[in-house]
Amino acid sequence: MLKSKGTINKFMCLLCLFIVLTLSTGFGYSSEKGKISRNIYIQDVYVGSMGLDEARKKLNDKYKIGPILIKYNDNKWTINPSDINLDYNIEESLMQAYKYTRTDNKLENIKRYIDLSFNQPQKIYLRATYDELKLTKYLEKISRTINIDVEEANIKINDSGEFKRIPSKDGLEVDVVKLKEEIYKMIRKKSISKKALDAPVKVVKPKITTKDVESIDSILGKYSTSFNENNARGNNIHIAGKSSSDKIIMPQEIFSYNKSTGSRTSSNGYKPAKVIVGGKYVNGEGGGVCQVSTTIYNAALLAALPIEEVHNHTFPSRYAPRGKDAAVSYGYTDLKFKNPYSHPIYIKNIVSNGAITSMIYGSSQDKERVFIKTEEQYKNDNLVVKTYRIYLDEENNKIREELVSTSKYKTKH
Question: Which among 286, 258, 261 has a CA at the least distance from the CA of 271?
């Protein structure tokens, strides 16, 4: 009995050795030399037991690369495969299929061949490649022939109060991201349609519409201050007044004086003039710009605009009542206010004959009846001024009152 079992074991070992030797010398080459092993697919094409030429022809017939066609209205464009170096790399996949059971590892070859023989198919995918940069440039070229810039509505009010309204126009813009996705999808599926892709074009709406600027019809707040225009300070007021004028502030937007004027440097035309630094008057670039911010601030107060940021000077100003000045310093302190209305507002400054007048225009529907009052109190060497805005009804009865700011001035230089 033991002898019989030993004989069987010996026979099984010899049989296994025979199988290994047979597979390692023959099965790695399929049933015929030069052919791909059975049960192998490339993408969705069965290439098992085929020679390379036959498999190549079948793949080229199935996955022939054609041009990518794009159209918009009567315009058509063709992107040839060579334009973007598009390739399905069929040769690369053929070699993978051919060498699947022809690796340097003979045991692995045997395992793969057995798996294929027991109906476990192997699928090899075509690897599509193309030049992303070239495709992007080509689509940008197409976009330039379709795109139309949006035109924002605008309004200009000259010094005499004459209105000139410029209507808005919708723009057109190719959705390049969406178009790329459609092209990527075709390339991934290895199925480029003979039917032209419709270029996805979206309408770009203006942020400021004709209706917006048509709503601007009245002065909501107006204020003036005077100055000597025959010196450096007068020069700076002219420049700051112009740079902060003709500004449209849309609903819920915040106006920043510093942002509108930019830095007060010589390169922007500003000259050295008296400014207060550390409680002392010294020469500094942009002296005088605070008078412009103060004038705009008072117009904003009368226009009933919420004040987001305002600062008083160290000492009371000569050109504005106490509690009604707005000190600014680029990069440090600013004047900011918000448009709370459902219509845009428009800032117009007129600088002429030693005076600056700031007007805030808006819709007559938003006009409020307000007046500004201040309360003063001396505390030690300081003067504290509280500024209130009072809202009135049509019969001048007080509706409500709000504290706008609390200013603290030094009374001794």
Answer: 286
